[in-house]
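Hallway conversation turned thread

IA: we were arguing at lunch whether anyone had actually written out Adenosylcobinamide-GDP ribazoletransferase end to end. Turns out nobody had. So, for the record, here is the sequence (253 residues) and right after it the structure tokens. Reply here if something looks off.
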Amino acid sequence: MKKEIDIFFTALMFFTRIPCPKWIGHDPEYLRQSSKYFPLVGIVVGAIGALIFYLSLFVFSKDISILLSMAATIYTTGAFHEDGFADVCDGFGGGWTKEKILLIMKDSRLGTYGVIGLILLLGLKFSVLLQVPSSLIPLVLISGHAASRFIATTLIYTHQYVRDTDNSKAKPAAKTMSFGMLCIGGLFGLAPMLFFQQPLLLLVLLPMYMGKLFLGQKFNKWIGGQTGDCAGAVQQLTEVIFYLSLIVLWRFI
């Protein structure tokens, strides 16, 4: 049990800025196994966003509360996944060979494609959440963050890691994932959705996975697999797809 707790805290330390116990290190094996807890980390991040939204509503309007919630989740993760999404936009937008794409994605500077991608992504996320009833936004946030991270882990399971160097900090986490780890991640990823008490809402997983297949196909075509940035891009895209799909499904429930 202590080992699993350490593995979870390793995931929490790697993907967020939340303080972790001092005994937690950067063991590569623990980091590799931590991928099964990515959706659980999503629950934690989503819960922080939900709490900020709930508390903000006592003082501010709904739109301001949503923006504060988004800012809180971005701060909590250090924009980890947003950075991956922007890197993918820059790499695949400006590179025409595997080597060039990987080189651009490693560049710490933000390019035009990344800027435009982030503006559209965050603007769409904000606009969609505005359409969600205020009473449901906390649960929607928690579910969206958890489910999208589960879909991102399926990319690690189905696509090989292709970073051409061994000094990538995300390599141990993004390199491999067993079927058992994927199942554990699925349990955490889908658990929050049970509180909607609407089984049909699980259909949101279909367009989310289709979004992952769309990006996965491009990743395979151009670089022959995935990197940590690719998983971050899948998480961000499928989170928005989750919110969009919920709005559509609510029209028929």
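OS: looked through it. The chain has a mean pLDDT of 92.
IA: good, adding that to the notes. The chain has twelve helices and no strands.
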